[in-house]
């Protein structure tokens, strides 16, 4: 028996129990302690880390142990709550404040389940359902519901739960969400197996334009996000695809405080896709040689290779070749038939040029260097 928790009433709660019942690998365990006090936890060597309510780190495992608590609405938004902890708070009281029934199950040390809100039944029936009416008091719960819908794609959302989501929007609670919290949930949702579903749920609840104003989301974008999943694309690539049809992708990224890498991808992808589609319409016949001994295509005029070079330079491919390739991979979900190996060869050909030698040959004069360097790059491509 662990001496740090010997004599305490401790339960594993939430996601670890849910995932175990789903037959999925359990992540980090969250623990609830019933009937204890902050003073007793500190005396046992637990390190307090909670802000609004008492949460402690186990002295050895560093897992989180929270005292059972209740909450009461005291203001607008997800921070507008007053929490109460104490020896009188029961496990059932604590589980009642949780968002979804599938997350309101606890497992006792003897392995038995405490499931007062029938979460196990909802897991078996694949339903995401709120625990109580308090769901409509916390706008983060709408984001979490949408994210869980994306993660558990086979689960439906109970109609009464969706009705509460709409109430969150209608009453303006969703407007109190801070951008950083929106991004945290959006980033998790984009990295699930069905990311489009997150935005479909937000759209269905009437919340999408409130949390990500200006985002254009439709079935085409949904299909491209699923393509990104199938291709194993990264978060910046998926975010760029999500924002691709929006008038101002950069603004959306900055609004939700997305990382600069995600914003850059979102800013660059639409123009790249458009240029690739234009090349495809013209046959992209100016093809680079596929091997060292192969002669250039007879159509490899400077008109064709100029389009290649312009595309590489506009996307800063010379300085950031991997990002350029990553953008091409994302573009494959839109433009299709993007010949990435050919683009890699084009990049390699241009980047192999000794810019210093070209500058020296041009006599060190800036106006001559620029023209000479471009000509050498075009020659390398053709």
From TrEMBL:
Composition-biased stretches, type Basic and acidic residues, lie in 283-293
| Protein name, as recorded | tRNA nucleotidyltransferase (CCA-adding enzyme)
Give the Gene3D superfamilies listed for this entry: Beta Polymerase, domain 2, cca-adding enzyme, domain 2
* InterPro entries recorded: CCA_bact, NT_sf, PolA_pol_head_dom, PolyA_RNA-bd, tRNA_CCA-adding_enzyme
**Start and end of every Poly A polymerase head domain?**
10-129
Molecular-function annotations in GO: ATP binding; CCA tRNA nucleotidyltransferase activity; metal ion binding; RNA binding
What processes in GO biological process is this protein linked to? Answer: RNA repair; tRNA 3'-terminal CCA addition
Tell me the keywords, alphabetical order: ATP-binding, Magnesium, Metal-binding, Nucleotide-binding, Nucleotidyltransferase, RNA repair, RNA-binding, Transferase, tRNA processing
Task: Provide the family line.
Answer: Belongs to the tRNA nucleotidyltransferase/poly(A) polymerase family.
Specify the tRNA nucleotidyltransferase/poly(A) polymerase RNA and SrmB- binding domain's residue ranges. Answer: 155-215
In residue numbers, the region (Disordered) covers 283-303
Q: Which cofactor does it need?
A: Mg(2+)
């Amino acid at each position: 028996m662990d001496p740090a928790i010997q004599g305490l009433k401790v339960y594993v709660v939430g996601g670890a129990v849910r995932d175990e019942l789903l037959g999925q690998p359990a992540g980090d365990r969250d623990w609830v302690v019933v009937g204890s006090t902050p003073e007793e936890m500190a005396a046992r060597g637990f390190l307090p880390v909670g802000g609004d309510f008492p949460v402690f780190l186990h002295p050895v495992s560093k897992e989180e142990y929270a005292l059972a608590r209740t909450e009461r609405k005291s203001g607008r938004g997800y921070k507008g709550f007053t929490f109460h902890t104490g020896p009188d708070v029961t496990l059932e009281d604590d589980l009642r404040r949780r968002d979804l029934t599938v997350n309101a199950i606890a497992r006792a040390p003897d392995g038995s389940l405490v499931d007062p809100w029938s979460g196990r039944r909802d897991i078996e029936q694949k339903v995401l359902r709120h625990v109580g009416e308090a769901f409509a008091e916390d706008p983060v719960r709408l984001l979490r519901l949408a994210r869980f819908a994306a993660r558990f794609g086979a689960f439906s959302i109970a109609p009464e739960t969706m009705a509460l989501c709409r109430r969150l929007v209608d009453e303006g609670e969703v407007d109190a969400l801070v951008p950083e919290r929106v991004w945290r949930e959006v980033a998790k949702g984009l990295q699930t197996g069905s990311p489009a579903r997150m935005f479909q749920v937000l759209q269905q609840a009437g919340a999408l334009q409130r949390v990500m104003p200006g985002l254009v989301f439709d079935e085409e974008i949904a299909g491209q996000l699923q393509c990104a999943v199938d291709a194993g694309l990264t978060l910046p690539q998926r975010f760029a695809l999500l924002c691709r049809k929006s008038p101002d992708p950069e603004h959306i990224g900055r609004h939700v405080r997305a990382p600069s890498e995600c914003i850059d991808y979102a800013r660059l992808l639409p123009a790249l896709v458009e240029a690739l589609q234009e090349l495809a319409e013209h046959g992209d016949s100016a093809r680079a040689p596929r091997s060292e001994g192969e002669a250039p295509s007879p159509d490899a005029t400077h008109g064709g290779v100029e389009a290649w070079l312009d595309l590489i330079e506009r996307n800063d491919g010379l300085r950031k070749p991997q990002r350029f390739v990553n953008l091409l991979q994302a573009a494959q979900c839109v433009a299709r038939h993007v010949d990435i190996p050919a683009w890699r060869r084009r990049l390699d050909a241009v980047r192999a040029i000794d810019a210093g030698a070209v500058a020296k040959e041009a006599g060190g004069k800036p106006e001559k260097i620029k023209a000479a360097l471009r000509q050498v790059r075009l020659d390398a491509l053709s």
